[in-house]
Design a protein that fits this description.
The chain is of the alpha+beta class. It contains 15 helices and 8 strands.
Amino acid sequence: MRRPHFLISFILTSLFVPLFVGPTRGFPEKDEAMMKDGYQLHRMEAPDSSLNERSAAYRWVDIMLDVAANDVERIGARPTILSRQMAIPATAMFDAWAAYDAHAVGTRLLGKLRRPGKERTRENKEEAIAYAMYRTMIDQYPHFVDQIRKEMKRMGYDPDNDTEDMSTPAGIGNTVAREVLDYRYGDGANQLGDEIGSSGVPYSDYTMYRPVNSPDKVIDPDRWQELPFSDGKGGSFYPKFLTPQWYRVKTLALESADQFRPGPPPLWGSEKLDREIDECIEMNANLTVDQKAVVEFMRDGPRSTGQSGHWFRFAQDVSRRDRMDLDADVKLYFVIGNVCLDAFIASWESKRYYDSSRPWTLIREKYRGKKVRAWAGPGQGVKDIPADSWHPYSPAIFVTPPFPGYTSGHSTVSAAAAKMLELFTGSDRFEVAAERTAGSLTEAGFACEVMQMIDGQIADGKRLSCDVRLRMPTFSETANMAGLSRVLGGYHIQSDNIEGLRLGRRVASYSWPVMQTYFDGTAKVRD
């Protein structure tokens, strides 16, 4: 594999995936709200110093994301489930708010709950929202009821008030929460573990998925294989396909999960797949400090809330930038939560239909018995290693997400959310920056120069800084950054990314007019 081949391939693929504006190095001084160069600072997980100035919807999303992160620490990242756990409260919040709007209708009861004009106060909206969020969150995050109750009290409400008197804001909130939850219990996700054929465990598979390949033998390199994860104690385990039933989950806006299913991925032995395998190897072996920061930023960290949570954070950036009020925030989080859920459903339909392989398997099969130029592990830099030792730029405890590759969930969901933000705001402009220390999630404790070694040698006289500022000028470029990061990191080949981006944008473009029918009151109840 020679570098010119990689450059040609990279140029060709970049015609389909415009590259993000490059990162800048070093952390500039900033005030609380804006970077000096005009870029707002992305919050990530840092507390917002002016949270009390934000709308009640913004604050409840903050609470939800914190609880979701705690749940990830408890059980691990489950991006599909996380997307649903966030879409449900965001939908209930919207439905509660809609009762106090002159035109909007809820997703389950439409306009049946509409309150008279004299009751359409901010205080009533906030109270209805609080109970809708509270009831749905304690259902979706049952291990954190105490935390959620504490937040409910801190917001000034009684968590034990379970009235469904619809002449009261609390009654509106409790009623819409019950309606949304009752609908979602039977949506195909198997939250209650009661689907015929399931194990009885919440969210367990009931579709009888079985991988073609075993963990130690590849029968068909075009098909998915379970991969070995370190258990952190010297042993290993093989995670199963996460929620293979997700293609059966009910969508909010799409007519069906396969509505925009892409054509097939490149197959074993084809020139295109050979080219994309080599491209993945070379990208992963030539990561700059900036690119490592991109990979880790879009991987989203140990308290990851998945792509849904990441784009909820981006939506909060937009809310602060545009100084959105309560009404706008409610609509914003409703569309982001639901377009992410629908995008996950569409992506998982493709994953289940094609059951495609990952670079881990493809590289080992193509270069079996040979060496490849690759990242050799934390603090080891790049060198020639046996192909069967190749590893993505990722910790051993999380090798590659446990599900098929095509299409990339990161690409699909990011493109869907980015397009929705563009449609919602009327512009592709984003102008947000994120500060990262490259390697902090993958090579913690190693000096930047050591991380970038080549054949065991540190570049003479070259001092590196791993402090990086990633600029995201537009929503679309941010989605492209997210998608390309998965190829750079070694989790996907380029087709997974490109088709995922296309799929996500089609999902959002189709969904936006549907979302607007809930705003203008012309929506119909979905079965």
